[in-house]
Design a protein that fits this description.
elongated, 11 helices, about 40% helix, Cell envelope integrity protein CreD, alpha+beta, membrane, Uncharacterised_IM_CreD, transmembrane helix, transmembrane
Length: about 450
């Protein structure tokens, strides 16, 4: 039975559209597995500790202000004074804030899923410089100061793994649970000795903080001059927050990053005032920087990206199949196209399932080898020649290699994809430059 060229091309196009059905199902399975892994990661974090953010230390000085107001008795007309007491707090940010930390990572597994935890060992130090008369314009005689304390906000206090001790001007003081101020959320605080209400003091502080968390560690630079230095064995850091490191070094052994900010860059005093007065703390907590310890491109993201190239991949394979058919005058039934297409779709299911148990590169190699071997064996019989089957398999293997290059080179994926399509189009034009397409349409190849 003769078939026109237009009918064959239409059948191939229809097959490509039909093959999108199993590909969409596999893409949905990727999203489902990714969601399951996210639930497991959250469960692991729930039983250990979530991502951590350190805010502070901030010096808090509670006070009671006593005022006297003259009033008149409406009945007798006599004047008298009424005493009122008003509670408030003064907040002071450090003049200098320094944090140096060493961060190690580990994997926690639950079933086939893994979560990356980190353990930071940090040394925090700095200085508070109290203004004269504590910055109060009124007569200090109206004020009675209560016990001041140093507040450190820590987003998940379950991650604290050492006995926190504050070293303040040569004294050693103990931290207590709770930040001591509702504005700063969870954390710790350390009551400090009575301050001189006349101010003008310098308070040198230091403490060690060992902290466990998952996914991300961030720090709010509370000092007028803030310097933070982090070292880690994690080779794929993703720097987050509003400030990038001033200096950083990344290699296969890990990374070193240094940040330096000032009040001019952070405007933290205004953010602190909005937090404690206007109860708008988003600006204070949002002025952070840090590092994320998650895998930049996991197996699910890579598989999802591979599926996005599936239409192009199937079209190129069918184009090569069609060229064999046209140039060698062979008859290939649409069912045979469909079987080859299903084998190509099965590659993505194999890749998804194997990558959950093996490194992605190994899972990709095994999946590609299995599909190339199966299709090469089948095509060698369809094209009536094992040499043609081997040639087709070699072309398919090259396509799989190019696809892996696209997945690995994230920054150059568009450029490489464009060059691939241009190269394939050029090859088709060169191979068919002398082909009589009208002749192909009239003369049906013999089965």
């Amino acid at each position: 039975m003769s078939r026109t060229l237009g009918f064959k091309l239409g059948a191939i196009a229809l097959l490509i559209l039909l093959l999108m059905i199993p590909l969409l199902m596999i893409d949905g399975l990727v999203d489902e597995r990714q969601g399951l892994r996210h639930d497991v990661l959250q469960d692991i974090a729930r039983s250990s500790s979530y991502r951590q953010q350190v805010t502070g230390p901030i010096l808090v000085v509670p006070y009671i202000k006593t005022t006297h107001e003259w009033k008149t008795n409406k009945t007798t007309g006599e004047r008298y004074t009424e005493e009122r007491q008003q509670r408030g707090r003064l907040y002071f940010l450090p003049e200098r804030f320094v944090l140096e930390g060493q961060v190690g990572t580990e994997l926690r597994a639950r079933g086939i899923y893994q979560a990356r935890l980190y353990h930071s060992d940090s040394q925090v130090s700095g200085q508070f410089r109290l203004p004269a008369r504590l910055g109060l314009g009124d007569d200090l005689g109206f004020y009675r100061f209560e016990k001041a304390f140093l507040s450190v906000g820590i987003s998940d206090i379950r991650g604290i793994s050492n006995d926190l001790q504050l070293r303040l001007n040569g004294q050693t003081l103990s931290f207590a649970p709770g930040s001591g101020d509702d504005s700063f959320g969870a954390g710790v605080h350390a009551p400090i000795p009575a301050l001189d209400p006349q101010g003008g003091q310098n308070l040198e502080f230091a403490f060690d903080l060992k902290l466990q968390g998952t996914e991300q560690l961030s720090i709010v630079p509370v000092g007028r001059d803030s310097r933070v230095k982090l070292r880690s064995d994690w080779p794929h850091p993703s720097f987050v927050g509003e400030y990038l490191p001033n200096r950083r070094s990344i290699d296969v052994k890990g990374f070193t990053a240094e940040w330096q900010t000032s009040f001019f860059a952070t405007n933290l005093e205004e953010a602190l005032r909005d937090c404690v007065v206007g109860e708008r703390c988003q600006a204070l907590f949002g002025r952070h920087f840090g590092v994320s310890f998650v895998d930049p491109v996991d197996q699910y993201l890579k598989t999802d990206r591979a599926i996005k190239y599936a239409l192009l991949f199937i079209a190129l394979t069918f184009a090569a199949f069609f060229l064999f058919e046209v140039l060698k005058r062979l008859a290939v039934h649409p069912v045979q196209y469909a079987l080859v297409g299903l084998s190509l779709a099965l590659f993505y299911l194999l890749l998804l399932s194997l990558s959950e148990h093996l490194p992605f590169a190994l899972a990709y190699g095994l999946s590609a080898t299995a599909c190339v071997g199966l299709i090469g064996f089948y095509v060698s019989h369809v094209l009536h020649s094992w040499q043609r089957g081997m040639g087709f398999g070699a072309l398919l293997a090259a396509l799989y290699g190019m696809l892996y290059g696209l997945l690995s080179a994230e920054d150059y994926a568009l450029l490489m994809g464009s060059l691939l399509v241009f190269g394939v189009l050029g090859s088709v034009m060169v191979l068919t430059r002398k082909l009589d397409w009208y002749g192909v349409g009239r003369a049906a190849p013999q089965a």
